Amino acid sequence: MRNTSNHWDIFCSVIDNYGDIGVTWRLARQLAAEYKINVRLWVDDLAAFRHIYPEVDVTATTQLLQDVEIRHWTTPLPAIEPGGVVIEALACHLPDSFIHAMAEKSPPPLWINLEYLSAENWVQGVHGLPSPHPRLPLTKYFFMPGYIAGTGGLTREAWLYHARDEFQNDINVQSRFWADIGLPNDKPGHLRISLFSYESASLNSLLAACSQSPRPIDLMVPLGKAVPQIAAWFAAAEARAGAIWRRGNLSVYVLPMLSQDDYDRLLWACDGNLVRGEDSFVRAQFAARPLIWQAYRQEEGAHLDKLAAFLDLYRANLPPADASLVRAVWQAWNREEDMAVLWPAWIDALPMLSTHARAWATHLAEQSDLASNLVKFINKLLESRAF
Ligand code: TRH
Fold first, then answer.
1. Strands 291-294 and 272-276, how do they pair?
2. What is the C-alpha to C-alpha distance for residues 16 and 134, in angstroms, rounded to an integer?
3. Is 278 in the pocket of ligand 1 (CB under 6 A)?
């Protein structure tokens, strides 16, 4: 593929949590590593960034990480010449001064609005549409991540599946991983489930069901929103990384937040994963392990539409009884209902769900990835400009 060989600016505003920086950092480093693009990633919250990439220096206005130039996005933005491509990610707003600098550049940068991921049908219709600026000689293009042909695809690095398979096929590598993150690896018969969720009224019933499970369950919980609620359920005084809480057949291991790459390994290593938002959700699908997704809550239940659209795709090849179970479990978790009956049913179904998860991950890899789709999209626009 032709190298677009110029400078790209990606803007990321951290609205909350880690998804905004998680998505943009992952894309930025892939563009730099696989396409040798000079990426400048503007981030307004370096502290949030450091949670998923501990090497980040929160005091630096400029730093180079994995061949990506990281710029602290301050207000006002320093006067700077825009790159040839400008990506406005996940509903952030470019500073006016930068938009004017874009309009003054000749030719003007290609302006991409990278949207949130959704499995809903309308995504295909919007993907690639131009939106001319009302006053300035600039056009912004919608780039929609998605699961089906005619969308922008999903961010998936070239190395990902190979690294996952090497990890999942090598018990020694897995043992080293557990040791490296300070967890025991000598628990035959235990199920290991990772949990990354928002606060939830369902959580207590899930913990209770785990504690009564016939098979011991180890819940791996990186520090975050769910931890105080779990600590309260155990009546534990302090919620810190390293804490271990036990009740019945449930053990909860509180982990520090891991780097993005180690979090991938955690997803690969566990028997099942509870994930949320956007990026951890996609990574859990790539992990080829059973998952339950908690969608980011939106006004008027818009997240439940997103959930339903994804479930339609994900369950398409499952026998009816299994398909119903998956929908019931995911809906209950998202509607914050009681998990007492559904959780044990999901645990019992793990062998079937594992087979399905692998088939789904294989299916996803048939689609070209978001970075390569984006580079193709940009090259096409450049070619159309040449005439
Ligand atoms: O953190 P999230 O809930 O993020 C978001 C934001 O809320 C955002 O505003 C919203 O629009 C979006 O969701 C849909 O969930 P997400 O998307 O899964 O992002 C988490 C990131 O954190 C992801 O890149 C994985 C990373 N991560 C680590 O690197 N280490 C960890 O230990 C964990 C648990 C996550």
1. parallel
2. 30
3. yes
Q: Which of 9, 44, 264, 278 is catalytic?
A: 278
- 285, 266 Cβ separation under 8 angstroms: no
- Ligand 1 atom at minimum distance from 52 CA: 29
Residue whose entry in the numeric block shows the structure tokens 């992990």? 287
Distance CA 235, CA 237 (A): 6
Buried b (16+ CB within 10 A) or exposed e, 61-81: eebebeebbbbbbeeebeeee
Closest atom, ligand 1, to C-alpha of 280: 18
Mean pLDDT of the chain: 95
CA 343 to chain CA mean position, Å: 24
The tens digit of pLDDT for each residue in 324-382 reads 999 999 999 999 999 999 999 999 999 999 999 999 999 999 999 999 999 999 999 99
What single letter denotes the amino acid at residue 86? Answer: V
Q: Give the pLDDT of residue 185.
A: 81
- Residue 8 CA to residue 83 CA, distance in Å, equals 5
**In 274-319, which residue ranges form alpha helices assigned H by DSSP?**
279-286, 302-314
**88 catalytically annotated:** no
User: How much is the pTM?
Assistant: 0.97
264 lines ligand 1 (CB under 6 A): no
- Annotation says 278 is catalytic: yes
All domains of the chain in start order, with CATH: 7-154+368-385 (3.40.50), 160-365 (3.40.50.2000)
Q: How far apart are CA 37 and CA 26, in angstroms?
A: 14
CB-CB contact of 50 with 19 (8 Å): no
Question: CA nearest 84: which of 2, 5, 7, 3?
Answer: 7
